[in-house]
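COMPLEX REQUEST
Ligand: D-MYO-inositol-1-phosphate
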Amino acid sequence: MTISVDILEKIVREAGSVAMSYFNNLNNVGVVKKSPRDLVTDADVAVEKFLKEALNKAYPEYGFWGEESGQSDNQTNRWIVDPIDGTHSFAKGQYFWSISVALEIDGDLVAGSVFAPALDDLYLAIKGQGATKNGKAISVSPETSLADSMIATGFACLRSYLVENNLKRFCRIAEKTTGQRRFGSAAMDLCLVADGQVDAFWEQELNLYDVAAGALIAKEAGGTITDFKGTDGVFPKQILATNGGIFKELLELM
Ligand code: IPD
Ligand code: CA
Ligand code: CA
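STATUS: Structure written out below.
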């Protein structure tokens, strides 16, 4: 079945309304720790429940994999959902968090949307058809010099005990660029690459639900998506998304 942009956008916006009903009433939102540094809020659970039901109603032929509820039967053709990417930011009342929904068919990402309800920015891509932000076509930045680049990254607070915790790489790259940013939502970081707001993004030790939709959006906007060795593809444990123009220079520093 072909995916309807309108149906996908409607479902993602409705999920945004569910999330905002909690965000606007944060004092009464339950927050528990899945592990010492990993939060889950009532909103994460409610948004995922909404998306699971709405996507299943609109597209019953596809399975579902959500961060909070896990995997359903059909994992060959499936929706991949992070109900709230940036839960720490959400729980603190900051605006930079998003809802991430991707459709994967036989291992191929074919549709994706990332919606930041507090910013009212909705990114969407269908494979082969380009990427949009709030309905308008977007493309990666034309920057070709790493020295003039603005780059986003993330530090896996959950994985800070790892020897490879990104701090050394961050220091190495920070010395060579104009600016580094840590926004707090990997899905949105990838959309910022797509929109030319940053020239590249990298992070390590993520999961597919963090990056599936954003990676498709960045790719459809003209970006390159590789691992830290430059192999094409979406590798959540080592994701490097660039505008293409600074790819080679940045790859050498990874
Ligand atoms: C997190 C965000 C963050 C990244 C973390 C992720 P969550 O997702 O994407 O930017 O640095 O590693 O776990 O836990 O808020 O869904
Ligand atoms: Ca996430
Ligand atoms: Ca999440």
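REMARKS: Residues 146-251 form a domain with the D-Maltodextrin-Binding Protein; domain 2 fold (CATH 3.40.190.80). The longest strand covers residues 77-85.
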